Amino acid sequence: MEYLSRNLANLKMFTQVSGLQANLNKSEAYFEGVPTEDRQQILQLLGLSTGELPFKYLGVPLSTKKLSVLQWQPLLDKMTVKITSWTAKTLSYARRMNTLAIPQQACWMVRKVIEAKEILEARHFVQLHNRSLIRQIYLHLLGDYNRVEWKSLMFNNAARPKAKFIMWLMMYGRLMTCNRLSSWKIIVDTQCVMCRKQVETRDHLFVQCEYTK
Length: 213
Known about the structure:
- By secondary structure, the protein is mostly helical.
- The chain has helices at residues 2-18, 36-46, 69-90, 93-99, 108-122, 133-142, 151-155, 161-171, 178-183, 202-208; strands spanning 28-29, 49-50, 55-57, 60-62.
- It folds into three domains: 1-52, no CATH class; 95-145, no CATH class; 159-208, no CATH class.
- Residues 134-213 form the Reverse transcriptase zinc-binding domain.
């Protein structure tokens, strides 16, 4: 029983350091394949009573034998209630639209989904041999747009992704230049930080500025 005495000493040391203490009044000892004489010595040393299997640990029944359905039933009931509560959370947007009324204050994303749903319901798509059904739906929702002239600059460019993204913003006029920040009522110095001669705009930064040239 020397190993058991050492474990008890370690447990007492843990109690002194952490302030946490095991409640022996709520603890029991469980044995399997241990001689009766050794059991008595262990119970006397620990001051515990003998527990009977099966028992529950954190709501889960534990046993050395196969548990019956009746023993598992309380846990199954808890799982069923939990899964049922998740049903509304895991419904797709399409399912929610069929079961719930969309409020007037719905965000733009929900409204876009509803709009796409109505478009798809108004048209019947047919599976073709050389074109997938998903591709047909995607192209239909995408609509007809003219290809931009600088398309090859984006897709045939070996530059870093960050540089390509900045170029994409520049082409669409979405860079945070000083003239745009000023138009949003943000107090900034609108002069170009490099030449200090003109207002910082997209065209000035990339074409007109003497440092760019």
